[in-house]
C-alpha cells in the first residue's frame, strides 16, 4: 500500500541556460507524478499487487486512476482544492521543483483502512505526508500492528531541514525501512561518511538503504553500483528505485538482491521524461 501525494508534474527541459526576460526554447511535458504515486505506478508495472491512497481535486479522480495502470487506486476528490502541481525544471542530472500541494494538503491517514493494512506486506510513505501534521504516527503503528513493514522515503533534504531534523526522526519512529539519499542521510545524522551514516540510522531502523546517485546504493555495508545509462530526466528515479527494491524484497527478503533490482528500475526511469513507466 502506498499513501501520500499525487501530483500533476509540468516537466521543463530547457535547451540551455534560462534567459531572463525572453524566451528559452524548451521541451515541456505534463506528466502524472507525486512520489508515492510514482512508486505505486512502478510497482504496478513490475506486476506487484499494489493499492494507492491519495487525494485529488474535484473531477480528477478518473484521470489520475487511469495514470496508475496495474494499481488499485483509492482517490478522494477534494471539493475546493485543486490537484497538486509541481513545475520540474531539469538541468542535466539536477532539477529544481516549484511545488503547490493542492488537495494533498487534505490527505488523511485514516483513509488507509484496516482492511488495506491487513492484506499488505508493506506500507510505503514519503516524508511529505508529515506536512499534514495529523495521524501519521498512528498510521505507522496501525500498519506494524497489522503485520506490515513500513518503508519511508524522506522526500528531500530541504524538506527535512524545514520540518526540523529531531522532529522528523521522531515522526517516523517505528518505520522498518528507510530510503535516505546521501544528502538526507548527512542531515539526519550530522555525519559525512556513507558507512557511518548507514550505521547511525541502523540503530533506529531495521533496514537502511542509502542512495548515492551515480555512486550507487549502500545497504548492509555493501555498495551496489548504479546502472550506467543516458539520463534524459532524473525526476522520479528514487521513486522507481523504491519500487524495484520493495518488489524484490517482499518476494525474496534479500536486501542486496532488492537493491540490485532497484537500481535497474531507476535506470529505466531516467531514460524518459516524467517519473512514471512509459508504455
Describe the structure.
The structure is a single chain. The protein has about 280 residues and is of the alpha/beta class. Helix 5 packs parallel to helix 7. It is globular. Strands 8-9-10-11-12-13 form a six-stranded mixed β-sheet, sandwiched between helices. The longest helix is centred in the C-terminal third of the chain and has 16 residues, at about 235-250. The protein contains ten helices and 13 strands.
Short structural description:
The protein has 10 helices and 13 strands. By secondary structure, it is α/β, with parallel strands linked by helices.
Output mean pLDDT. 93
Number of helical stretches of at least 4 residues: 10
Distance between the termini: 23 Å
- Which descriptor suits the 3D outline? globular
In the predicted model, the low-confidence regions spanning at least 5 consecutive residues are none
Percentage of residues in strands: 25-35%
Helix content: 25-40%
Q: Give the assembly state of these chains.
A: single chain
Q: How is the biggest beta sheet arranged?
A: 6 strands, mixed
Strand order, largest beta sheet: 8-9-10-11-12-13
Alpha-beta content class: alpha/beta
